[in-house]
Amino acid sequence: LSTRDTNRLIMKKILIIWISGTGKTTLALKLSSILNIPLFHYDTYCWNNNWIQQNEEMVKQKILKMLSEDHCILEWYIEPGSKERLEWADRIIYLDYSGLQAAIWGIQRWWKYRGRKRPEMADGCIEKLDWNHLRVMFWRDERKEIERVIVWYEYKLVRLRSRKETNSFLSTLI
Predict the structure, then answer these.
(1) DSSP helix/strand/coil, 12
(2) Neighbour tally for 3: CB within 10 Å
(3) Is the separation of the CB atoms in 44 and 121 below 8 Å?
(4) Going by C-beta distance under 8 Å and a sequence separation of 6 or more, which residues neighbour residue 62?
(5) Are 33 and 172 a contacting pair, CB within 8 Å?
(6) Which of 165, 169, 173, 97 is nearest to 137 (CA)?
(7) Tens of pLDDT along 26-81?
(8) Prediction pTM value
(9) Chain Cα centroid distance, residue 37
(10) Secondary structure class of 143 (helix, strand, coil)
(11) How far apart are CA 88 and CA 10, in angstroms?
(12) Which of 17, 15, 23, 3 is nearest to 112 (CA)?
């Protein structure tokens, strides 16, 4: 088997994790198209209209349903309660970009969607960016928690540190 075929075979259940502003949705859409498998966005399942957070029990039920899928991509946030998602995945793709890259791309995303919602968001979830979120992206505040949680899953982790590495990874699947 070629590298491309081997990578495709072992990537049926993909979990994409990130620090904010790294392009997880863009990568998820590309992977879904290349591998022809469904995609589930964190933001779609966690937010109702107008930035009202979804009921926690309903989110848990939706996660369990997604985890019953044989082939899919989950673009999801990682926190201490993520064990079932991490164990479920054949491959965990971690967008571990620099804080500067994340902040710049976060600003670019805000600029692109300012005054309207992103396609994966519920109605009324207008794109916004505040100084606190920008600070989180720049200083990669989420990274420490992600690193603590994924330590037991290094054997199935693909860590991508730049767009160049991400594009190179994608080229192995095409």
Answers:
(1) coil
(2) 9
(3) yes
(4) 45
(5) no
(6) 97
(7) 999 999 999 999 999 888 888 899 999 999 888 888 888 888 888 999 998 787 77
(8) 0.90
(9) 15
(10) helix
(11) 13
(12) 23
Tokens of 131: 């100084």
Structure letter (DSSP) for residue 121: S
CB 107 within 8 A of CB 129: yes
Burial of 160 per CB tally in 10 Å (0-12, 13-18, 19+): buried
The total number of residues shown for the chain amounts to 174
The label of the residue with tokens 């967008």 reads 95
**What does the block give as tokens for 54?**
């979804």
Alpha helix (H) residue ranges in the chain: 3-9, 24-35, 42-46, 56-67, 83-88, 99-113, 131-139, 143-150, 163-171
DSSP, collapsed to helix, strand or coil, labels residue 21 as: coil
CA distances from 66 to 7, 11, 62, 102, 149 (A): 22, 16, 6, 28, 20
Amino acid symbol at 142: E
